[in-house]
Amino acid sequence: MGCNGELSASASALSVLILILLFPLRGGIKIKSKITIKSLPPVLSPAMLSLAEARSIIEQHVQPLEPQAVPLAAARGRVLREDALAPDDLPAFDRSAMDGYAIDAKDASPKFRVVMEVQAGQVPTRRLHPGECARIFTGAPIPEGASQVIMQEDVERDGEWMTVRERDTKMWIRYRGEDARKGELLLAAGARLQAGELSLLAQLGMVRPRVGRAPRVLHFATGNEIVDPSLTPAHGQIRDSNSTLIAALLADAGVQLMAQNRCGDDLDDLVGAIRQHTAESWDCLLISGGASVGDYDFGARALRELGFTIHFPQMNIRPGKPLIFATRERQIAFVIPGNPVSHFVTFQSAIRLALERIEGALSAWKSAKIELAADLLAKPNERETLWPVHVGVQDGALRATPLAWQSSGDLRGLLGANALVPIAPGTTGAKRGALVDCVLLGPLA
Ligand SMILES: Nc1nc2c(c(=O)[nH]1)N[C@H]1C(S)=C(S)[C@@H](COP(=O)(O)OP(=O)(O)OC[C@H]3O[C@@H](n4cnc5c(N)ncnc54)[C@H](O)[C@@H]3O)O[C@H]1N2
Ligand code: MOO
């Protein structure tokens, strides 16, 4: 099958058409057909980087794109690319913290004449003199001559007179500058803008904040065996679950999925389909499958044909060893090992870092010690294992439940997955009740 257009319910049957027209190609021999046979060794050297080394290479090679100023309403979920400073003292004026009466705290008069009313948003019309008070409401400016607000629950009012029943030691005034001083840093560049951050920007008058551009991603799922999920696979075929997985992971990461296509195991088809998208229209290319060393794994060769430089061909992790990372000027590309659990793990541990870098965000890859709710049955392996777990509240505390993960094709290993437990090469898992490092990935529930 060739590459289809945007993903839809269409899926073509596997077509095998062999024309006997041989010519040599780097890394193999190509039959001009739907089949390419590689007879030479793989193009890539099998250097085995640790995850930490691979992440450091990604950090070196991915630079943030120019920020853009957007209206506040369009900034939710984006990364702030400038510091937010207090433009003035906050609050900017002394204001009442309660509904009540403003007096001079030192004024010992037995009763006070109410000489004016100050509502929030109004300016006091005069200053207070001894024996005078102002009716005042929460948020209203404190008049000159006043230094305390008495809550209305603690006074008696009789016409134009007010008597304080009970003097409070509290002043009930929010003083100018008590929250922040003019010029103080309130939110540093790199923060992701959620409800609290956005409302702070509104308070500061930053109505067009400079934010990181959402990375624009192209995704190609490759494989002659994959068919649209709406179809019944013939013997030897499987439904394409990776496209759905990637679309959901990208949406969670606030990334723009520009186009998603399904493509057979054909180098020319893949390269041709990618070339249909102009270089200016995307920032990151994701190719699912074809990351390994099989005769029909074209990921690395497609990237080379497109002028990409490959920075690493694999990492020493499981699942997801054959993750390929490449760049072409400001554009980045990953070939993701086809197995679905490998997709999840490599997206979270490496691809997400690159997308965060493009936006200028701080990395969300952080771990916390969390108690295991059940045994984590990992056998020692030469690779670092990243085991999907579900972290949630159990008996009033956060606990991590290891997910059943038979193989990297077993999607039950991703149900509820919101954290990964790194297990060092050569070490085993841990028993129920043990505290383990959990890298937190998403909402905990
Ligand atoms: N000789 C070696 N073989 C393999 C190695 C190796 O080091 N030497 N590594 C293995 C590892 S680890 C992985 S992971 C896979 C990665 O393979 P590819 O990225 O080339 O992916 P495929 O071979 O195309 O697929 C692997 C597996 O995943 C299924 N798949 C593919 N696409 C989808 C999709 N869109 N939705 C659902 N499932 C998909 C595919 O059918 C295969 O079963 O290589 C090993 N081999
Ligand atoms: O590393 Mo592969 O991703 O084991 O299945």
TrEMBL record:
InterPro entries: MoaB/Mog-like_dom_sf, MoaB/Mog_dom, MoeA-like, MoeA_C_domain_IV, MoeA_C_domain_IV_sf, MoeA_linker/N, MoeA_linker/N_sf. Gene3D superfamilies: MoaB/Mog-like domain (3.40.980.10), MoeA, C-terminal, domain IV (2.40.340.10), Molybdopterin biosynthesis moea protein, domain 2 (3.90.105.10), Molybdopterin biosynthesis moea protein, domain 3 (2.170.190.11). It catalyses: adenylyl-molybdopterin + molybdate = Mo-molybdopterin + AMP + H(+). It is an enzyme of class 2 (transferase). Its EC number is 2.10.1.1. GO terms for cellular component: cytosol. Keywords: Magnesium, Metal-binding, Molybdenum, Molybdenum cofactor biosynthesis, Transferase. GO terms for molecular function: metal ion binding; molybdopterin molybdotransferase activity. One of its GO terms (biological process) is Mo-molybdopterin cofactor biosynthetic process. It holds the Pfam family MoeA_N. Catalyzes the insertion of molybdate into adenylated molybdopterin with the concomitant release of AMP. Residues 218-357 form the MoaB/Mog domain. Its cofactor is Mg(2+). Pathway: Cofactor biosynthesis; molybdopterin biosynthesis. The lineage of its organism: Bacteria, Pseudomonadati, Verrucomicrobiota, Spartobacteria, Chthoniobacterales. This is Molybdopterin molybdenumtransferase. Belongs to the MoeA family. The keyword Transferase applies. It comes from Chthoniobacter flavus Ellin428.
